[in-house]
Amino acid sequence: MKRYIIALAAMAAAALLGAQYAQAQPAGRWDSTKAFAVRDTQTLNLDFYFPGHWQQSDTLRPCVIFVYGGGFVANYQRAELYSTFCRALADQGYVTAASDYRLGLKGVHEKSSLKMLKSFRNAIRMATEDLFAAIDYILRNAGTLRIDPDRIIICGSSAGAISVLQANYELSNRSEMASAIPADFRLSGVISFSGGVFSNMGKCKYSVHEPAPAFFLHGDEDRLVPYNRIQLFRLGMFGSKQLAAGYKEAGYPYCFASFGNHSHEVASFQMEQFDAVMWFIDNYVNAGRKWQIDMEINDMDHEIGKVYANPWRAYSRGF
Predict the structure, then answer these.
(1) Mean pLDDT throughout 51-78?
(2) CA distance 185 to 211
(3) Residue 196 is part of which domain span?
(4) Distance (Å, rounded) from C-alpha 260 to C-alpha 257?
(5) Terminal CA-to-CA distance of the chain, rounded, Å?
(6) Could you give the strand order of the β-sheet that contains 61-67, starting from the edge strand earlier in sequence?
(7) 87 φ/ψ sector (left φ>0, alpha ψ -120 to 50, else beta)
(8) At what angle do helices 113-140 and 2-14 cross, to 10 degrees?
C-alpha cells in the first residue's frame, strides 16, 4: 500500500516540473481580455482570440476554450507556444478563449506523501472549478461574443489537459462542482495533450449522461502524467490509455493517438498536431461522427507535422 501512495504522491510532485514544456512570457496577439470570476481574491481572466471579420457577421461561431499547462504552479496563459495555437484556431474560424485558473500547487512544499497527494487533488479541484466558471461566463455572454453555445470545445495541455478531462468527467456525472453549469449543457468535444482524470471511485465511469467526444494525445513513456494509471484501491490517476479503453467499452466516440517512445513532451505538440486537431473538430464536433479510433504513432524520424498530415486525412476518408 505504501508504495502506491508514494507513487501517487511522486506523480503529484512531478507535476511541478510540467512548466518546462511551456515557453516563457510574453507572447501573442490576443484581441480582448475579460474577467470571468474572482476566486480567493484572485481575478481570473479569459484572453479571447477572434476570427477575422468576427464583428461584421451575425453567424454564431464554435468556441474553443484552451487551458494552459504549467504543473499547477506557473501561469503560462500567454506563453508563445499556446498563444500561437490559439491564434491558429481563430484563423480557422473558431472563437478561442485562453482560460486562467488558480494555481493550487504554487508555493506548496509538502514533506508528507499523503499531504502532497491531498494538495494535488485540491489543485485539480480548483482548476476544474475555475474552468466551469469560464464555461459559465461564455454561456452567459454567448450572444455578445457571437458564440454557438451548442458547440463549445475544451482543450488543454498537461495540467490544463488534466483540468479539461476532469471537467468532462465531473460534468458527465453531474458532480457538485459541475452545478455551476446548466443541467442541459453538453460539451461538444474534449482535446487532451497528456492529461488524465483523478478519481476516488475507481475506474472512471460516466454515469449520468454520455461524455463529450474525446481526443487523447499521450506519450507512452510519460512520467509526469500517467499514460496508463496509478491506483490504490478506488483512488487513482487514470491516464489516456485507461480513459480510451473505457470509452471504447462503453461505445463513446473517441480518438486515441499514442506516441511511441515519447514522454511528456507530447503536452507541447499543439502546433505539430494542428492538422489532427482540426481533423478531430471537423469530424467529431462539426460532422457528429461516432468513430472509435486507436492510433499508434511510432515513426519519429521526420518532422511530425509532415508525417501526420496525410494519415489524418486518410482516416477521415476511411470511415
Answers:
(1) 88
(2) 11
(3) 2-318
(4) 10
(5) 45
(6) 32-39, 42-49, 95-99, 61-67, 147-157, 189-193, 214-219, 254-259, 292-297
(7) alpha
(8) 50
Residue 292, all three cell numbers: 472509435
Please count the structural domains in the chain: 1
What number of other Cβ atoms are within 10 A of residue 96's Cβ?
28
With a cut of 70, say whether residue 170 has pLDDT above it. Answer: yes
What cell numbers appear for 309 in the block? 498530415
Rg over CA atoms, the chain: 18
Beta strands 254-259; 95-99: pairing state: unpaired
Q: Return the minimum-mean-pLDDT range out of 27-36, 128-137, 152-161.
A: 27-36
pLDDT digits (tens, 9 = 90+) for 84-97: 999 999 999 999 99
The mean pLDDT of 304-318, rounded to a whole number, is 46
| pLDDT tens-digit readout, 10-22 | 555 555 444 444 4
Rounded-to-integer distance, Cα 309 and Cα 134, Å: 32
CATH of the domain at 26: 3.40.50.1820
Closest CA to 162 of 252, 244, 69, 272: 69
**Total Cβ atoms within 10 A of residue 223:** 13
Phi, psi torsion values for 186, nearest 5 degrees: -130, 135
Q: Tell me if 275 sits within 8 A of 77, measured CB to CB.
A: no
